[in-house]
Amino acid sequence: MTNVHPFIRLTRYARNYRPQIWTATTCSILNKFFDLAPPVLIGAAIDLVLQKENFWANPFGVQGLAAQLLVLSAISGVIWGLESIFEYAYALQWRNLAQTIQHDLRLDAYQHLQELELAFFEDRSSGGLMSILSDDINQLERFLDGGANEVIQVSATILLIGGAFFVITPNVAWLALSPMPFILWGSIWFQKFLAPRYAEVREKVGLLNGQLSNNIGGITTIKAFVTEGYERKRIEKESNQYRQSNRKAIAYSAAFVPLIRILIFMGFIAILYYGGLEVQANRLSVGNYSVMIYLIQRLLWPLTRLGETLDQYQRAMASTNRILDLLDTPIAIHSGSQVLNSLVTGDIQLKNVTFGYAVNFPIVENLSLEIAAHKTTAIVGATGSGKSTLVKLLLRLYEIQSGNIFLDRIDIRDLELRSLRSCMGWVSQDVFLFHGSVLENIAYGSFDATVEQIVEAAKIAEAHDFIQILPKGYDTIVGERGQKLSGGQRQRIAIARAVLRNPPILILDEATSAVDNETEAAIQKSLERITKNRTTIAIAHRLSTIRNADRIYVMDQGKVVELGTHDELVANNGIYAGLWNLQTGQTHI
């Protein structure tokens, strides 16, 4: 986390919006200028009526009280009109600016999030990240929508009224404005005092959102284990901590306004008392005395709202820190620049590859193997042996710690990430379907595919028959994560999605783990067709699914311990043979 103030960080991010910011700021200042002009005109009218002064006659060549008051009324109308115009203008500018910044900031944060490695997501809850992308950005939007204008107008009010006081009666003005340095200094100190309180509030709301997201995602498990009461208590605990942190911040921010009112009251008394003495001594006109009394009141109300504005500002700055901390998170996996041509053969080599999810705990160590182009290569082994990890390394979802991985004799770190991943079709054991129709999920990643191509891919994956009997066929909504479908149905849609993509390299990571024997047999038959003349990597526990592979690697504790075809490995009577005998019920002799 950086030590730079969040406001400075925000201005750096918003440098491309400076023309809009200056336009909005100018409109706010002009609105406040014309908003404060009427009291001056009222004072002039009072002096004109009471003292019969003709200072309005000379500039306009108008004689007589009635005519001069008519001119004064016309000027008032113009000022009221301009004040209204600039009020509309600043509201339009600030609100549109708030919408633009929150839109761009959310997209930038989301795009950056997509480029971060999987390890980043393993250490954070999805609810906490959602809190940043949604609630924190909305918090900043709310400040820009109204709070920024409030800060500018309060500053303009102090300068304009202070300037007016020194023009009207300098010897009283310094008394009236003497509380201002204390108010400004107190405001700055107070917002620094509140900053860590609101940082804690944003942290608590992130934890609460994380727990809520986790529970909603696991609602089936909660119901199955009858833990609704337990989970309610956990949410209650997180919500209460959020409430308590908010209460502390609110208790402090609420005290600000009464303190400001006391300081402003001192300035008001100075104007009321000493200004009255100046009028009695004929050093100040009645009209100007009325102007000062009225303006000090106009100064009072914006400053009393300053506490609310500072509260909003601190919430926004706490959110800004969280958003920009996410944007400043370094990207660990950088894209290369080389683009693969359209004739990818799919020849893959791993040389002395070492990788671990934690330091000094390697999952694979000094691993070397070859995956032949246009052949089916299977990788088997016990849980935790590093099989699925290899797939993630091939896709560069994680970065290897040492060694090299080559695709068509090119180090994958030199390849553009999009180019590398586009040539691979991955069917994971943990199938993820998006909330949408069956058709949309099959076409995901192949958005220009025709309906005929989608249906053909579904047929190859043995999914077409069950899709047809769904309530709306291919237009049936699958629900979040595909929860309306069975595990086997989700798996076949995932296979159809990979088939439709028609990649030169097909990765099947336990692709038939969630289907019954009958469906597995059907999928195996279709796989024989789609793996022909294609580099296929099959990760499997169920050895029956890979017995026809051209080459089988057996892994144990991150290393290759056996290599061969199915028949060769069974004949070797090693680890593979033991697994085969265990799964087929054969007795090892």
Walk across the major sheet and give the strand order.
Answer: 6-7-8-3-9-10
If you consult CATH, what is the topology of the largest domain? Answer: ABC transporter transmembrane region fold
Tally the structural domains. 3
**Helicity, in percent?**
55-70%
- Work out the radius of gyration: 36 Å
Mean pLDDT, all residues: 81
Terminus-to-terminus distance: 62 Å
Explain what you see.
This protein has helices at about 5-15, 20-50, 55-60, 65-115, 120, 125-170, 170-175, 180-215, 220-225, 230-255, 255-280, 285-305, 305-325, 385-395, 415-420, 440, 450-460, 465-470, 485-500, 515-530, 565-570, 575-585; strands at about 350-355, 365-370, 375-380, 400-405, 410, 425, 505-510, 535-540, 550-555, 560-565. Helix 20 (about 515-530) links the parallel strand 7 (about 505-510) and strand 8 (about 535-540). It folds into three domains: about 5-325, Up-down Bundle (ABC transporter transmembrane region fold); about 335-425 and about 505-515 and about 535-589, P-loop containing nucleotide triphosphate hydrolases (Rossmann fold), CATH 3.40.50; about 430-500, P-loop containing nucleotide triphosphate hydrolases (Rossmann fold). With about 600 residues, the chain is α/β, with parallel strands linked by helices. The two termini are about 60 Å apart. A six-stranded mixed beta sheet has the order 6-7-8-3-9-10, sandwiched between helices. The chain has a four-stranded antiparallel beta sheet with strand order 2-1-4-5, with helices on one face. The longest helix has about 50 residues, at about 65-115.
